[in-house]
Amino acid sequence: MQNRRPALALGLLAVLLAACGGTSAGQPPAPSPTGGLPADQDALVLQMRSAGGLMAPDYEFRDLPRISVYADGRVIVEAATREVHPGSLLPPLVEGRISAEQIGELLGAASAAGLVSGIDASYPSHGVFDAPATTFVTWSPGGLTRTSFGALGIGREPEDPAEAAAREKAVDFLPRLVELAESVGSEPYVPGAIRLAIRPYTVTDPAYVRDPVPWPLDRSLASAGAPIIDGSPEAGRCVVVTGDDPDTLWPVLAAADGTTPFVSDGERFALVVRPLLPDEPPVCR
Fold first, then answer.
1. Domains of the chain, residue spans
2. End-to-end CA distance of the chain
3. Number of Cα atoms under 13 Å in the Cβ half of residue 29
């Protein structure tokens, strides 16, 4: 599961569009609801993520939004990669930038899609109970609106006409995100904080044995962090790396793959890496 998810990042959007047929990509956006963007450059103004369904624990721990847009124009996208094993230890996040005018147009389109109502909404799956939910987060001067659709674009049509219309407008909005994601470029995103799951190193297939990598930070992997799941040590311990440490650690992680062992105090450990985004607090939960 660790290596499938990045390859699905933007592909999911294309699948949703194909599933529902036509789009309104050529329609002009509605007037922007922004009224001026947040002063905090790290404030989230738009995000789309797909999560849930039947996923492995590693997937849950390192789950990332498909696309995030911030008040200063930064756009962070989880890009597609080749489906290989073992894949990179790091999820393939790339970063770009758009103008305030482009943000306004994007939020205007989200408003026309009914995603900036100021009222959170959640629509259940209909007949596809193991499918992920697609969640949109949008900003307006009144705050963030969260709208979640279970099995968006698949499954049977809901009986409620209002829900059916909401789903149709959400799918019609997706081409704007596809266009944005494809134009963002390929500059790697380097986070200011990193969340790690620390687990004992166990690789039984000789083909995947890698040379051990010395742990570059002072804090020992043998004792750092708190249990991810109380009473389930196999889930590992969680620790968040902040301050100057991400600058030291990131190049080391970038050179590793999913089966690389890290040596700390004479012991070998496996890591699961989740870069934290600008709006996310440096905590494990």
1. 4-188, 194-275
2. 21
3. 17
Tens digit of each residue's pLDDT (9 = 90 or more) over 95-117: 999 999 999 999 999 999 999 99
Residue 194 · residue 273 · CB < 8 Å: yes
Closest CA to 260 of 242, 251, 249, 272: 272
Phi/psi for 7 (5° steps) reads -65, -20
Q: How far does Cα 183 stand from its chain's mean position?
A: 18
The answer to whether residues 115 and 136 touch, using CB atoms and an 8 Å cutoff, is yes
Contact criterion met (CB below 8 Å) for 154 and 128: yes
Q: How many CA atoms lie within 13 A of 239 on its CB side?
A: 17
pTM, to two decimals: 0.85
201: CB partners within 8 A, 6+ apart: 261, 262, 268, 269, 270
